Amino acid sequence: xxMTAIIGFGVISGCGSDRSSExxxxxxxxxxxxxxxxxxxxxxxxxxxxxxxxxxxxxxYYLSQAALCGRDIxxxxxxxxxxxxxxxxxxxxxxxxxxxxTDEFRDFETYTKRVWFSNGIYHHYSSDKFKPxxxxxxxIELVHQSDSSALPLREGETAGEFLEEIIPVMFNPHxxxxxxxxxxxxxxxxxxxxxxxxxxxxxxxxNFYDRMKIPGDTTPVSYGLNSRLVKENGKLKEEVYxxxxxxxxxxxxxxxxxxxxxxxxxxxxQQAVIDKLAEYYxxxxxxxxDEYSVLWVNDLDSRIDFVNGFIETYEDPLGMKATWExxxxxxDLQATRRTEIISANAQWxxxxxxxxxxxxxxxxxxxxxxxITVAILGGDCYPATPIGINLPNADWIRKHHGSKSVxxxxxxxxxxxVNLESGxxxxxxxxxxxxxxxxxxGYQADNLQVDLHxxxxxxxxxxxxxxSPDALKNYASPLEEVRADLFSLYFIADIKMLELGxxxxxxxxxxxxxxxxxxxxxxxxxxxxDGKDIEQAHMRCRQxxxxxxxxxGKDDNVIEEFKRDGKTYYRINDFEKLRNLFGELLxxxxxxKSEGDYDAGKALVETYYGIRFxxxxxxxxxxxxxxxxxxxxGGFLNPNYELIEENGEITxxxxxxxxxxxxxxxxxxxxxxxxxxxx
Length: 679
Ligand code: ZN
Prior knowledge:
By secondary structure, the chain is an alpha+beta fold. It is 45% helix and 15% strand. Helix 16 (432-457) crosses helix 17 and helix 16 packs across helix 19 (507-521). Zinc ion is lined by residues 15, 17, 453, 458, 481, 484. Zinc ion (ZN) is lined by residues 15, 17, 453, 458, 481, 484.
């Protein structure tokens, strides 16, 4: 599975501590590109690429080409008119001879940009068809004043006939309104516009695949994963995505680049992975895909890694058919080292935890998280981007062979940089000192806190003998997040962090505490609609911790609420006392877990503000947030890789970050568009 994509001002990661929205900046690189509709476009940097060997760079390059070659596939999967519409929009965008300096043309541009963003005409997140803000009459005029020879017409079709076909799809809200239909009680297959089924009912599809399943099979293939199910002469038939099959023209390109990548693989294991993937693309055999997945999950030593294929099934109403996605990355050695240091000291942390001795583990093992740097995004990962990956998806492979879980730090970094400049911090921070601390140390402190949470927090402590692991029932999940977060908040302020070289100085702790309390008491509420409650476990967790510390520290004025110009702010007056409060609550939450004290757990979540909050404050925060006019969804442009050649030999590969969003989209459409319009 991919870990949640970038939504709103915050980023949600895997198990996922929610990395806070702010981070340190002061870098001369424009991460923000542009904003339109409800979308914000950013770009990410690829630090460390220059330090790769020439062979590694070539490998990244060839895999990147393979990642770009499947772009048309995701358009066609997302709806069978998408390629026709995209090509028509691009024809207009590239050749329209009329006036471009009008509101109507700007509306046309916005629509085109949205289609690029969503790889089709459906919103990438809600899956609803989005509506052009310009009229169909204007659209017809645009087409007539553009290069008609470039329109994606069918054989013998006139432009008029073509427009009659696509205009209702674009403009009529009742025609194919939803990509993935999920209202149970109606036919979710027939009502979904996603192009995985043609003339097939839900029941027919279910029966078709049920018949394939082998009773007692403990290593089943992922049935239906790489095909479209169609009806031919009344009979159901799979059109398999493979060389010589559906999407042949794009897949043959992907295979070409995989073959080149294979020649510069870092080692034999990795080469076997790449070769097996090519074999799968050639045959379309799902058993080969499983063999590939097993090889891939066992390739742990290579620096460079990638995803390329039909992987995630979120867009299929039946959850079987996978969209095409690709991503190339290399291990971030420095950040991975950070998690290794933490894990290597796991026992020290356990021994020094402020919890009762009876609840401590005698032997504790930390988890090492692999941190990666993304070099290219493709297919369903572009431009809306995951921030972590956890694959493969097949349950039996995960059980027997494990899975790879990674976080993508250059993406979260870019997102944080953009957020820092968005005005959000300036609006909600208590003052200039806080803003500067957070800008300087926020990102580093956030990463360390997430590492402590993930690598140590969840794994620390033990249940008393006889305590049921299910004793806390529905409160288990928010309480578990509370425990892991408290562990990280307590230890991030430990002198040990400085000794291990994980933090530069104590000011980083201040940055973390300020951001955490502000978020928990106030700013995370921007994600909740007026009148609604907090349901998400991580949000409840942060609110419990912040409210509890605020209330418990009231006598000493540890955290202070104050008003300025009628707006609410929070400042921290005593960081040491706050740390002790975190330690106290950690001891209590660990007791609740170790003893299975359901009533106390329930009281903490229900009474101590896990759910309730000040409605007036909520209204105030929403109003302040709205004024900032921030886009709720974000996506990323790719860098460009440039081959440096001498006498026909590649001597280096350089990276540059030039070009606008539209430039990149038009460039990809010109250079990486291999599929016919109608597939
Ligand atoms: Zn967690």
